[in-house]
């Protein structure tokens, strides 16, 4: 197979879903229903006549779809008057329409279902094998979504869309993962199209650190913060940037790659081809490699947290070195952007102050004094849920569904 050729993907839909061909009557009906759901999410309660004007659908089509959605508890209808005439007002049922958030990592997939009122209805994570192929990861996400919809008693037609987070740079023009991803098996694959076919709903793909940042200003205690940086430390290290109240994507969408900032000019060669990148000294993969030397059994990320709690000297030294390096990289970002808050996330959040303290020391050491004094550096309260929650928020935001 040529180096830049993506592996062929087997067409597949989620368990129990048969959306039909793109031009079929059932597919057309589902698209029309999603248009009405989007109109209600954006514009609030409306009469059927207003929905017809806004969506461009005929009055008969709107009437039939609204009747069906009312039966499926997607909407609530109430008699009203419009221009002196009797009419039917239609509004979304908060527990009817849902957004899906999916976080696909190196070893896991997590799916959440969120209501229009930003309430989590169902949530679950399942493990994935290290080095899993894209098809395997997407199949697992589709199967888990089908399971959660069944548990919640939510019809698939009620799904507004799915946000998907991937640990790697995403070319926003094409929705494909580009070289440099933690999941090299996914490079070049159009996740947006492949997953939309499996899930039977529109899909929005983003970098996981971006979604972690979105989660902090949507679900976390920093809701409404205009300038925030989310730093995810895991197998890779990346940053999501909220600037002036919105995610910052730059020219192509490849931003926040602080894991590939040079922190040691004579360090080891990174997977990106450069030398001495932050990831070569501070990622969980490097920590695991160092702690596994001489160990009688394989070390996992959870073991780092357990060993730190037991005050193991080698573990504490590795965490301290990594924290100082992350703090230095965060300082460089802060000196450029001057955010209000920097939030640390990823699989090491369980370390708490053991990791946060050296990050803060490295941050203050390399920051412009006034920036260092005025910027909060905190641990995320959302833990390993942040990316999936941000993915759900991405869908809700696109539908203008901030009802809560």
Automatic annotation (TrEMBL):
SUPFAM superfamilies: Actin-like ATPase domain (SSF53067), Winged helix' DNA-binding domain (SSF46785). It holds the Pfam family ROK. Residues 1-30 are annotated as: Disordered. Gene3D superfamilies: 3.30.420.40, Winged helix-like DNA-binding domain superfamily/Winged helix DNA-binding domain. PROSITE patterns: ROK. GO terms for molecular function: DNA-binding transcription factor activity. Belongs to the ROK (NagC/XylR) family. This is ROK family transcriptional regulator. It comes from Arthrobacter jiangjiafuii.
């Amino acid at each position: 197979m040529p180096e830049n050729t993506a592996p062929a993907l087997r067409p597949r839909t989620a368990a129990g879903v048969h959306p039909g061909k793109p031009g079929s009557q059932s597919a057309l009906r589902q698209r029309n229903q999603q248009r009405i759901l989007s109109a209600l999410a954006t514009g609030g309660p409306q009469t059927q006549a207003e929905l017809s004007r806004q969506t461009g659908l005929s009055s008969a089509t709107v009437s039939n779809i609204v009747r069906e959605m009312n039966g499926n508890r997607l909407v609530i209808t109430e008699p009203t008057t419009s221009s002196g005439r009797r009419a039917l007002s239609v509004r979304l049922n908060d527990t009817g329409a849902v957004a899906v958030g999916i976080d696909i990592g190196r070893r896991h997939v997590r799916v959440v279902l969120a209501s229009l009122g930003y309430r989590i209805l169902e949530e679950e994570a399942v493990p994935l094998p290290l080095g899993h192929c894209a098809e395997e990861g997407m199949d697992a996400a589709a199967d888990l979504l089908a399971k959660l919809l069944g548990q919640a008693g939510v019809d698939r037609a009620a799904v507004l869309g799915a946000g998907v987070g991937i640990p790697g740079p995403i070319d926003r023009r094409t929705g494909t993962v580009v070289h440099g991803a933690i999941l090299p098996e996914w490079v070049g694959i159009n996740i947006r199209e492949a997953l939309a076919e499996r899930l039977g709903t529109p899909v929005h793909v983003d970098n996981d650190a971006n979604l972690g940042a979105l989660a902090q200003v949507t679900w976390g205690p920093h809701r409404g913060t205009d300038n925030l940086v989310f730093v995810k430390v895991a197998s890779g290290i990346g940053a999501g940037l909220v600037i002036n109240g919105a995610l910052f994507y730059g020219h192509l969408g490849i931003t926040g790659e602080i894991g590939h900032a040079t922190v040691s000019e004579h360090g080891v060669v990174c997977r990106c081809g450069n030398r001495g990148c932050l990831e070569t000294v501070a990622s969980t993969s490097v920590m695991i490699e160092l702690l596994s030397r001489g160990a009688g059994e394989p070390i996992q990320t959870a073991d780092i947290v357990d060993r730190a709690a037991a005050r193991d000297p080698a573990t504490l030294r590795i965490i301290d070195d990594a924290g100082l390096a992350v703090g230095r990289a965060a300082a460089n970002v802060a000196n450029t952007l001057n955010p209000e808050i920097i939030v640390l996330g990823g699989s090491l959040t369980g370390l708490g102050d053991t990791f946060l303290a050296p990050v803060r020391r490295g941050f203050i050491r390399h920051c412009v004094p006034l920036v260092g004094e005025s910027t909060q550096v905190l641990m995320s309260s959302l833990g390993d849920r942040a990316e999936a929650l941000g993915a759900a928020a991405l869908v809700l935001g696109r539908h203008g569904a901030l009802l809560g």
